[in-house]
## 1
Amino acid sequence: MSKLIVSPSPHIHSKDSTKSLMLDVVIALIPAVICSVVFYGWQELLVLGVSVASCVLLEWAITKYLLKKPSTVGDFSAVITGILLALNVPYTTPWWVIVIGSIVAVGVAKMTFGGIGQNIWNPALVGRVFLLVSFPTYMTTWQQPQGLFGLDAVSGPTPLGTIQEGLMQGSSVQELTSAYNYSDLLFANLGGSAGEVCALALLAGFVYLCVRKVIKPWITLSIFATVALTSLIFWSIDPTRFTDPLFNLLTGGLVLGACFMATDYVTSPMSLWGGVVFGVGIGFLTMMIRYFGSYPEGVSFAILIMNSIVPLLNMWFKQKKFGRK
Amino acid sequence: MTSTIIWTIAVVTVLGLVLALVLYLVAQKFKVEEDPRIDEVEKVMPGANCGGCGFAGCRAFAEAAVKAPNLDKNYCPVGGNDTMAKVAAILGYEVKAKAPMVAVVRCNGTCEARPRVNDYDGFASCVVKSTLYTGDTGCAFGCLGCGDCVNACQFGALSMDPATGLPVVDEEKCTACGACVKACPKLIIELRPKGPRGMREFVSCVNKDKGPVAKKACANACIGCGICAKTCTHEAITVENNVAYIDPAKCKLCRECEAMCPTGAIHGVNFPKPLDKEAVKARIKERQQKAKEAANV
Amino acid sequence: MSKHTFSIGGVHPHDSKISRECPIQPLPIAPTVYISVAQHIGAPSVPCVAVGDKVKVGQVIAEPGGFVSAFIHSSVSGTVKSIGPRPDLSGRPSTHIEIAVEGDEWLEGIDTSDTLITEIPSDNKAIIEKIRLGGVVGLGGATFPTHVKLSPPPGSKCERVIINGCECEPYLTSDFRTLLEKGEQVVIGAAILKQVMGDVPCTIAIEENKPEAIAHIKEVIAKLGFKGIEVMSMKMMYPQGGEKQLIDAVMHRQVGSGALPISVGAVVQNVATALAVYDAVQKNKPIVDNSVTVTGECFPKQANLLVRVGTPLSYIIDYLGGVPEAAAKVISGGPMMGRAVANLDAATVKGTGALLFLTEAQTRRAPESNCIRCGKCADACPMGLEPFLLNKLARNKDIEGLEANAAQDCIECGCCLYSCPAHIPLLDNIRIGKGSVLGAIRARAAAAKAAAEAAKK
């Protein structure tokens, strides 16, 4: 008989592992990925492929050659970063821009901090914001998509972009939003980065993650609630200058950001109230940037800003200890 | 254009001067009065902040040294006699040169000599392992092999030898700060004098079990037979709780105990020539014979 | 689905009660028993027999070594062969009394019949003394001397007695079988405890995965006609049977940090302890045996055995066919808080409740990876602690930080390590940290006491 194993208790373990949790997130993203490929065609598939491949390869190379440790790509977190980065950029982005984005996302925002679990900012968002600032033309040009089956899609800039430009030119919000209807936004074949479209597919993934107990809904729900409330207040005050709540909820990558980026384990608070405050902050900052900032889209920046204060939120909002006030 | 540049320079210069003045006044107002000798002593310290002296870092040592009436209780093992001479010079005290010490790992239960009897699957820390049970070998006292000592050493002087499963001390790097001694939950590591030209003898075992039990668990164990104590002509060896101990103050490095030890538990390090056991045994026999004859006369 | 449960944390391991259909069978007595003098919390007992003495079952062989200590009785009849150190299940030597078995002669005065004695004596002091003389200790695993628990410090008042029949650890079924087979005795024991604590209400808490036991005990209570004893069906969750968690679930009161359950008016006793109280008070029978579940998927014959105290584990295992080939780990107790056995020759003690065999696949730990800050450990912790933080503080030996983050409140239930997706050995380090904090607290208290006494002089 071989030697008995001896260890401190406990002696059994749940089925969860980092890999199984990350795989669940990948599964949750599949509806959105399918939607974006159907709407944008093979070019979107290329963008996804390049993004995922470069993120995974980069993490593998860094762990093997620079850190000289066993490779961590098996936990699928690099795959998720790749998918999220791809869903955040226009489908016409050249492959080399995406590779640069991956280098920033995985190499700078994740591996320089020590790999998974050690980064402060969401890697996919850091990559996306870097690209937005460095390659503004590629990142803000929205071409008419052909769709995988040649589906007709509306061309032009994103709805938010259109609104902002229109407001600057003096049109009122009502004139501008009349061009859209909400079911378009929900089922979305409007211009935008792949992740902005098809809110329904994204929400399906979110529900899957909640049911599987991979994430808890507080952060996402508090973001939606804050966005709705803030936009309701401003819109009630001046409907000509400010877009309405439903419009804000459905456009501009809010759904993607709230469901998949803000809920990233590493960069979000640990406790319930910390998460709620985090979500409120993101929602509020998003609306401020959208209404008063010079960027049409605010979710990415809002999330990155709130990521910075997560250690403070973790310190301030701890869960209640048993038997103590 | 030029007026802008002139204004900029003027404003920044004035701002700089005002702020410098503020900083100076604040530094003067909140200055802590300290004995200037503390700074001087701190300068000659090694700066390792290892705590080997018993104080919380080199500055704490300097503060304590300045306050103390003499340097008897304040000794820096890392800087050694050189540093202490400098400190003594600054403070005007006398200091006795101490014999340099080194960490000695008193266990030779290698993977070969001490077979594993179970498979430890907990966190790789000697403290965790020793809190749980007596270890994954038959010896309840021996090295647990998880390397808490290696982690504790701030000077990189300890490393685990994968072939033996035991820690190895690099004498050049060891400063005898004592961190490894504190880290080992089995109290296996001891600070012993380095010895003349680095030569020293020690019993490489701390097993307190009775001889047969110890030997069954480890081929290199000290079985407490006492032959070493009987052989030693310098009264340097005591056997207590079934394990022998060599007092470094009395040991004269004759290596007779090492020759007579039946299990090879006694080790001699840094000796220039390998030990010729037969020759030493013969010499001992002769001496004991002569003593008997002298007693019979 | 019962809504009675504790308020913070908890995990849902599969309950694996594969031995639940096995009735408790007496194990034939081993040829030699080794009875430890350190089988309970508190001072080890002092042997009061000598080598060569003849002893009978139930005879006192060791007396309490202090106030918090217990009597130890011989579990067999025979001759004392030796009194000396013998390795326990972690390999550490502790004093054992070795008795070579001859026959099965019980001490006079012990009622060995099956007759149910329903009449409870009225003298509470006499009852507690009988419990003390019977060497009764908490059989839920903690082995705290029961007579001490039943004598709370002056000023504290018991408001409820809770009988813990949750058996929340997976695999264990001996308490369940005891409830089914000795339900009357358990209920009478509960009634005794209830009376001794001031005739307070009594709740018998049973997890909902034991519906037969719940139904049976309800019947027994009705049949015996005891008032003030109720059965509460608890939600199936680990650690429902943890003392603090159970008090929270039943009474909705949380015992404060460092405080005793009596501070919120609760006294909790395990089902097996209630049975031992019945035996000691009604039958004059001290603790000489306990039921042990022998189980595990790789173990061919599931069993619940009545084992005499001091039986070597190897004897029990060999009786049931030996250690299975597929077994990689043998655990004394449950899979969450049990102790892995390094020494199969160790003898059972009063607190031994199970022998569990797990395969390599079930128990080998996966390699550790980076903490992904998912917070599952904090969600799982029933004491509301943050294991990811305590683990880091313990590895950095930051004792002040550990105390500030309540490491001393940890009940070592294992929920954190169980749920960590990165397989970080959280509890291994937190346990060490908790020990350091408790040591620091004790040192502070001792220093304060010394300072106070010096000030008095």
Note: Chain B has eleven helices and nine strands.
## 2
Amino acid sequence: MLDFINQHILSIIIFAPLVGAAINWLIGRRLRSEAFIGTVACTAVGISTVFAFIAAFRPETGALRAEAPILEHLWTWIEVGTFRADFALAMDRLSGIYALFITGVGLLIHIFATGYMHGDGGFYRFFSYMNLFMFMMLVLVLGDNLLLMFVGWEGVGLCSYLLIGYYLDRDEARVAAKKAFVANRVGDWGVILGVMLIFFLTGSISFFDKPDLPSALRIIGEMPIEPFAWSALFAGGITSAAILLFIGATGKSAQIPLYVWLPDAMAGPTPVSALIHAATMVTAGVYMIVRCSPIYAHAPTAMFIVAVIGAVTALFAATIGLAQNDIKKVLAYSTISQIGYMMLACGVGAFVAAIFHVMTHAFFKALLFLGSGSVIHAMHHEQDMRRMGGLRKYMPITFATMITGWLAICGIPIFAGFFSKDEILWKTWSTEAFAIPHGASRALWTIGAITALLTAVYMTRLMVMTFWGEERFREAHAHDAEAKPHAAVHASAGSHAHGEHAGAHHHHGPVTPHESPPVMTIPLVVLAVLSTFGGLVGVPYALSGGAIPNYFEKTLEPIVAHAPTHEEAANIEKRIAQTVARRGAEAPAAQPAAHETKHETAEHAAHSPEEVRSERIFSAISVIVALVGIGIGWSVFSKRPLLQMPRLLENKYYVDEIYDATIVRPIVRGATEGLWKLFDLGVIDGTLHAIASGVSSIGSLARRLQPGFVRTYAAIMLVGALILIGYFAYYGVLLLIRQ
Amino acid sequence: MVPLSWYLALSAVLFTIGAAGVIIKRNAIAMFMCIELMLNATNITFVAFSSFFRDVTGQLFVFIVMTVAAAEAAVGLGIIIAIFRNRLSLDVDDASVLKY
Amino acid sequence: MNIYFGLQTATQQFADVNLWLLMPELIVASAGVLVMLVDAFTKRLDQRWLTGGISLIGLVAAAVSCVWLWTSWTGPTEAFFGMIVLDRLRLSFTLVFLVVSALSVLLSMIWVEWERLPAGEFHALLLFATAGMMLMASGGDLVMIFLGLELLSISTYVMAGFRRTDVRSNEASMKYFILGSFSSAFLLYGTALVYGATAMANGTPGTTNIREIAQRLDTALYPPLLFAGAAMLLIGFGFKVATAPFHVWTPDVYEGAPTPVTAFMAAGPKAAGFASFMRVFLFGFPFVVAAGTAQRLHSAWIAVLVVLAVITMTVGNTAAILQSNVKRMLAYSSIAHAGYVLVGLVAAGAASDLGQRNEAIAAVVFYLLVYSIMTLGAFAVVTILARSGDRRTEIEDYNGIGFDSPWLAFAFSVSLLSLLGVPLTAGFMGKVMVFSAALDQGYVGLVVVAVLNTVVSAYYYLRLIVVMFFRERSGAWNAPLVPASMAIALALTVVGIFYLGIFPGRVIEVFQASPSVISRLLGT
């Protein structure tokens, strides 16, 4: 028994939620007992959590302790020629950390959801989907090759799609599900082509070295670094592969330009937003990039693009977040912004910092979402912050826990977000990566710092509007008449959620908020503890002075690639020239070793006194920025919580409208003329009604080809036949002439 | 002796007439006869090659083709009768419920 | 072992007879005749179980004989003067056809009763069509392939019009018949031209034997005729497998024909068309290195097929998006899938290395097996939901059935996801195999187009799933009872989709493997 568990521990981790999903779908549906369904779902995830901890921390072979990953080969999935994909699981330090917080945070959210979804007609459906999501997410991070990762990638997309559209009767949920689907599909296309290209370059898609199957990442790690040039993007080399994968990441992790689906995805139930659209799935893009860090380390152009997109997204989303009135929308834009930070970290080569932020973000963002869920639950599904206010005395536990989340995201010391965000900003400033030109690191840092300021402002605004000030929910009805024109404006601006609130609002009378039941507050408390102390596993050397070792960095550093610095890039190029000259068989093997020593010295250099001093200065700046932001937020919004924010921001820079005008509509128009049908049909925002009404114009060509007359068909075939015969005959006659 | 190319040309012309007839004719029976014409044009090619190279297999194939054509005729006429019973028309352009 | 077939020893000098080699075809055809007799001499009562049972037994027996041929195989063999060949291509395709037919029998057993149609006739036609398909795969001679194709076509013409009193069924049958015979004429003319063109200058007459054609390409007396003949053969097969622009019949016929017949037609004849297509073009006009007629011909048909594949995929997928009728949508989807298979066919044709060619062929066969299973699964659900008279086949008819009829909706979703090619389903494996074969030959552009097409196809496949699960039903609706035979068919397709998607190795190995490996797998 123990042996069995030891050998199949990873299978147990991934399959327990799948079994839970199946039980709930088959049996839970019949029983209709919330207790049964909730117990099954939480137990399934609980089993995963326990075994994930065992797998990660067991003595000697634990994934986070040992050097070698835990490998578990289930079967060889595909073997065609040289192409081989195993159905095999692997847990190394990176996937170990991911598995830990996915199962841990997932478990808390499942428990919370048993309270939140209480009384919902589709209880069994909800928990089946949630468990299925857990399964897919774990496949994504524990899969040992790109293809299996892609299976999970698609799977979480499917579950996200199902859960966004969970409220079947709401139109905007369906539209949002569709939008998420289309945006992710664009990204998937990038991933598929990227995986194909990697296979083309290396002949393997495995992450790890196995007997008779080399690791694609190692092979790329031994290739020369590509030059920093825009032409490399289209050269079909490592840079192209990196960019294709990054296109996938922009879809899944909601970065510019494919971020538009995430805010709309808030139409799903709040636990879904917390689990999928904040803590786990949306960070899959970061996981992929860090997992493929050797690829990015060899593609400086791609790294630069990742950094710029990340920084710009962070700033852009933060400004939008400033002006949203829907509590979940604020958090959604905040999520986009925080993932932008993670991308920025990846781009400047600080892969460890990126993962660190992923983890702390999972804690505090899940906390904030669940807290907002608790508020929404208390307010009977009211999400508009303009109709809240003064909730702190009604919901003391929710309030207290939200405070920790707020301080964490703002970056106040001790709280988890401080260490990770500070680390990213510092690494951005001090990066030596070849990919980032010298001036650019300063510019990126500035963007990051402004974003930090804005983050503090909008989060303070959220807290103030929700928990302090006068109690606006009572007179909400009185205001309703005045609010109407507003609502009309928003609705016309394409904000589906607003329409929903106006609609939902009519159903309820004035409400008295109440604290949520313990099943909801206990997860909040646990997450609050994690958000407070979770950052202590990664205290940088400069702040602790070595008193607390930086466990996080020590664990992850060995397995991520080291992005070459300017100096190294020059050296490596020289060495490659020598290698080519020598053509020695041992040269490629020697190269990474040299790489390694270089890297060691670089790390030691980082602890030099002046470096430590400047890192401390930057930490101080971060804290000041956060405090200033909170100050601004407090002073502006505590007096005037309903302050009208700039329309441009409130309407999200009209990006939806711009996409509609520049991409969707021209394509529709193009299609009307029979052109580019291919794309139109993929991108069209795609309500079925639009298709139905557009058929008469779009389908003109298809109609002309299929009029229903058999003689026309014969004519079409004859024309095709004549062309074919003509082509062949031309070939034949040519041959005669040649002879 | 008539050269081989004449036979081939005849067969090609007949085949083309048949193919054109399938497109031009609206009567199901006439279309069907045009298809028969195409098959028989092919038979001419078989026979021409066969007799030109003194090889009996080509002529044997003609018998096979004729048998197949007969079977096709039986089935085709059956289908045409079935459609005539329901529609009381042999105009193939009338049968265009299925389209787009 | 020839005791039972003394004929062979007695007539060996005169005729190259080896009935063992024809065993599967003989069994299926005899079962067809038996079904006809039973149909004539029994009462209508319980007849469908009888004829359906005989059909199933016949198909299983044929499968057994096929496996027996495979295990006792010592290498490619021929009989009847090269008319019938025994090789891996034939055997793997034969197994695909038998699977398709068996599932079709299961599908149609109750359906014939719903529609009050003569079960015996239907099953007999199905078996004759199957025999035709098998001959198309086993024929080593153009004339044999033509015969098989006609046997298949004539049976399917009748099946398409099987609901005699329904104008749509009539119309489908008429269109199929006219266009089908039209294209058969091209095929036959192509055969005649190739026969003439392969004559040699020394007075040796031409040939229709595929192996001999391949040997004589460079010495062909009339190369232009050879080229024109090849073009016409391509048209004939292109019609059968529904490649654009010879696909025009497909949507109308698939929509109008009774749904189980559509299921059969979408799976079986298409696979059979590809069997002959591959036989003739891969073995008749193969890859050669030396410059000459053969090399020219090869590059010509490869170039044409690349273009046809692109057009076919694109036309199929874009047109499918616009459809409001599920059967019609699946018809366009089947056109798109023919395009994907063509990608594999191109890869097999272009392969210069024999091992790679065999792998590509195995990939195509695997794709067709997978495609047949998932298409049959999808049409099975359509059959059940449409009930008699094919009344409910519009997409609106599927609104919100996901929660009233979860198993049907689940089976349908699995089939659709597999058609789309979602990982872990068989369709994904099929696409990986076919596309990677094409990548091996360097057709990167073609594969990119195919992948983009897959992305486009997501729209209409998922739309159906969305409709089933996210739409509300407007009117009252009772979930249909699923008869046992249909439930078995559906369960088999779902299991098959997952099995081939998760553990494809065994089957692929069987398709690629040398006979000794097969024997080992079967423990003989």
Note: The longest strand of chain C covers residues 77-79.
## 3
Amino acid sequence: MYETFFVAPWAWWVAGPLIGLYAVVFFVFARRNLGASSGFPAALEALRGADDPTKVDLSRPDDPLALPKSVRDPAPRWRVWWMGGLLLAGALDWALGGQAAGTLDLPGFTDSFPGLGLPGRLLVLALGGVLIGFGTRMSGGCTSGHAIFGISQRQWPSLAATATFFAAGMATAFLLRWALGS
Amino acid sequence: MRLRKHLPYLAWGLGFGFIIARAGAVRFDFIRDMFLLKSFRMYGIIGSAIATALPLFWWIQKRASSTRPTRPGQAPKLPWPHRRWTPGTLPGAAVFGVGWALTGTCPGPAVVQIGLGHWVALATVAGIFLGNLAYESAHRRWFAWRPDSCA
């Protein structure tokens, strides 16, 4: 029983509907949409002090790169707290004995890049991270904002974006397997 | 009080992070096998998440537009903001897809991975911050459109 809930990964037909329900319940209670990728610009704004609700002038058209602010949602800092929750969730899963937690490496990562030392693997992750940050900011969403929230709300740009990042991911994965022979 | 306003979001993040951690969306091997079409698992998760949320959002929209007074001939307002098309929507998604396949993680799971003790994910997260900064200067220099975001 414990093994099924807290150690082995949940069956897809349990995890998927739970994520869908989470999206709707979050929207109903928080009255806003969610997107994990927006947490990063929100953290940058918080670091720069650009999200202070007492200083934000809502009447003036602001910096186009700033996260949208309204009277009801003057500061995007809640996104930083939400990301803090993600960090805690990982630690909780680790503490409860979740599968593949507490390994310094990512599960299966080293096997996929044979012959690559730790510095090389870190470089691959950092480069991939830069592409994730640049791409999600340019596209205005990631798997949560575009695929889960966007498609469920029948937002057409989100559907097209989702199809595009799945196609690009597939092409990259097949190309990598062919090039590295892993 | 700021803390009282923000603490619920810590709990929301904890809930989301725990679900995606238990779903296995934080695992490099699961994402790789999804892209290599070796495993149905992640497609099942994303597909059933949308299949659950879509009818519920539809119902919320129906309810909101029937209770909101609208002038005849005027389209009912959506209870959520419209996503706009920008010239960056699709190119950005393609760039993100390459990064997703390289690291095996999207932005949310990257943070969860650090909590899970996959310390190499610190490189991924540092990269995501760098990518955001790079986009900001690239946008200011070359792009004229107003960017859209999931905020």
Note: The helical segments of chain B are 2-23, 28-35, 41-67, 89-103, 107-115, 121-142.
